[in-house]
Amino acid sequence: MGYVDLTFEMNRGDMQAIRVEKLSKTFESEAGDVTALKEIDLDIETGSWVSIVGPSGCGKTTLLRIVADLEEATTGRVLVNGKDASAARISREIGLVFQRPALLEWRSVEDNVSLPAEIMGDADILSRVGGLVEMVGLSGFEKSFPRELSGGMQSRVAIARALSFRPGILLLDEPLGALDEITRERMQLELLRIWGEVGTTVLLITHSIAEAILLSDRVLVMSSRPGRIVEDLAIDFPRPRRAELRADPAFVGLQERLRKSLEG
Description:
By secondary structure, this protein is α/β, with parallel strands linked by helices. The protein has a single domain (16-263), classed as 3-Layer(aba) Sandwich (Rossmann fold). Helix content is 34%, strand content 23%. The chain has 10 helices and 10 strands. The strands form 2 sheets. It has a 6-stranded mixed sheet with strand order 6-7-8-3-9-10, with helices on both faces. β9 (218-222) and β10 form a beta hairpin. The termini are far apart.
């Protein structure tokens, strides 16, 4: 396959890819200060998949953006591969995928995937574009434009683009949230396949309990604002995971447990 060299060099010196320590975030507004996050402590092991679920407005995306160095914490700190988040961003250790693929309509699939290469001036990325397109299942659509693609295919392009510079950490903010249920379930399995091939650490924000359980090694539950982690649940189902797992009584039981945790 063309993607044989897409894996990244993991920092084995510190097995915590992400470490969040006593992190709080307060937004100032004319109506008064709003505390979005309060004293978050979190460790995410290198190579693992961790998902966060929580009610709307609890600060899930704010936490993700702070890890990505797109927002500043009010107090506390974030370490990515043992270094400050801003240093990790500058050294290209973090990839991002948002709910909307944010593709450039005038660029083809391969040109959207190669965009980071142009921005970074990195010819090595260009050599991986074909393998990335193949890996996400879009061979034959290299010259297609976003308007010619389904929602699921556009999400694949966004994932390939985020992986193009081989980040050790992939941050996913509801990347499948805009898809219909059938497409979403198929894309969940595709994400598992891609993750299995690349081996990057993943932090996923999702509103779907079932999605979180199917994909993750751990599921974190956040409380209503100010967001705090109120449960850290290990998911011990063996990998690789199949669609049939969703009907397993143990899977259903975990869904109920997480639902009660969210309600509580």
